[in-house]
Design brief:
The protein has about 325 residues and is α+β, with helices and mostly antiparallel strands. It has a single domain, classed as Thrombin, subunit H, CATH 2.40.10.10. Helix content is about 15%, strand content about 30%. The protein contains six helices and 20 strands. The protein has a six-stranded antiparallel β-barrel with strand order 6-7-8-13-12-11. Strands 15-16-17-20-19-18 form a six-stranded antiparallel β-barrel. Its EC number is 3.4.21.-. It comes from Allofournierella massiliensis. Keywords: Hydrolase, Protease, Serine protease, Signal.
């Protein structure tokens, strides 16, 4: 009944043009959630951390080769295995899946961004949707360097991100460790944090640095997604051109705070969406999402890179959609 009430209020807000409607407050007791790192340890980590190196942004990179499964890396054992994935046999019903918003959500104004004029907005209350399922990543790369990135929950203990956040040939291969902090807001960890135990990336990203397969998944040692919820997922073959979106993540300039950049999709290819939202280092791996009445706030892309003339994201196509959906029911 409460969910129906929330849905009715959301619909009413849209009809009346209300830009923000909040249905939940901070978690009642943040100490109930696990902490992989204390605020002091995070501060020490960030003294030497830089944004994870990103691939060169481009609308048409390399040839559009077929998805070639994925590679899965066990951090504890150091074992890497190839995982073929037949999305035909794993196909989910339809082309969209609703998000899970146990904390309600705040409706975001559909304003538009302009590349060249930074109009990103700091999120004041990260503990509600659609923000609380976006995470900050503290990454110790294969070569020992400290990096920062972003991601978003797609299941109880699964985080979607960019492939270059989990595997980077130029930084020593697979990450040694990744700490995942949902909804980090200054020194506040409203849902605690967790550590990665398994990393997954696109097969073509690991084998040939193909940024058209630059996606990753982080499995963590706590079911934080049950508390944060997760975004809806969507793929479509039609163009997204002209549609308003928000690119979310943790930029290096103010790294303990979440920002979103509103913008418009101006170019749609099979694997890439480009537009005029603002994006800087540290936001790699965060979601590009859009509101749909059927699914709530819904991820359609993954932040990848940017330039002075446009920002781009890896488009969630049918294959990636079904791959991400395969993590919905997995838990720690």
């Amino acid at each position: 009944m409460f969910k129906k009430f929330v849905a009715c209020l959301s619909a009413l807000a849209l009809v009346l043009g209300i830009s923000t409607v909040s249905f939940a407050a901070e978690p009642s007791n943040a100490e109930d959630f696990p902490q992989a790192m204390t605020s002091e340890e995070i501060e020490e980590f960030l003294k030497t951390a830089t944004p994870v190196p990103i691939p060169e942004p481009t609308v048409q990179a390399f040839s559009l080769s077929a998805h070639n499964g994925s590679y899965s890396h066990d951090i504890e054992t150091g074992t890497t295995v190839f995982e073929p994935f037949d999305f035909i046999s794993s196909r989910s019903a339809g082309q969209e899946s609703p998000g899970y918003f146990p904390n309600g959500y705040t409706l975001v104004p559909e304003s538009r961004g302009i590349v060249g004029d930074d109009n990103r907005v700091k999120v004041s209350n990260t503990a509600v949707g659609p923000w609380c399922n976006t995470v900050k990543l503290l990454i110790v790369a294969g070569n020992g360097n400290n990096y920062i990135g972003s991601g978003f929950m797609i299941g109880p203990n699964s985080v979607a991100t960019s492939g270059h956040c989990v595997y980077s040939a130029s930084s020593g291969g697979w990450a040694q460790s990744i700490t995942v902090i949902p909804a980090l807001n200054g020194s506040s960890q409203p849902y605690g944090s967790a550590s990665a135990y398994n990393l997954v990336c696109g097969g073509n990203w690991q084998s040939s640095h193909d940024n058209q397969d630059d996606w990753g998944v982080i499995r963590i040692n706590a079911n934080l997604g049950n508390s944060t919820g997760w975004l809806g997922l969507r793929w479509q073959s039609a163009s997204y051109n002209g549609e308003s979106v928000n690119a979310v993540g943790y930029p290096q300039e103010d790294g303990n705070y979440m920002y979103y950049g509103p913008g418009t999709v101006t170019s749609s290819s099979d694997r890439t969406l480009a537009g005029n939202w603002d994006l800087t280092g540290g936001q790699s791996g965060g979601p590009v999402h859009k509101y749909y009445s059927s699914t709530g706030y819904t991820a359609i892309g993954i932040n990848r890179g940017g330039s002075s003339s446009y920002s781009d994201c890896l488009r969630i196509d049918e294959w990636i959609y079904n791959k991400f959906m395969s993590y919905r029911s997995l838990s720690y």
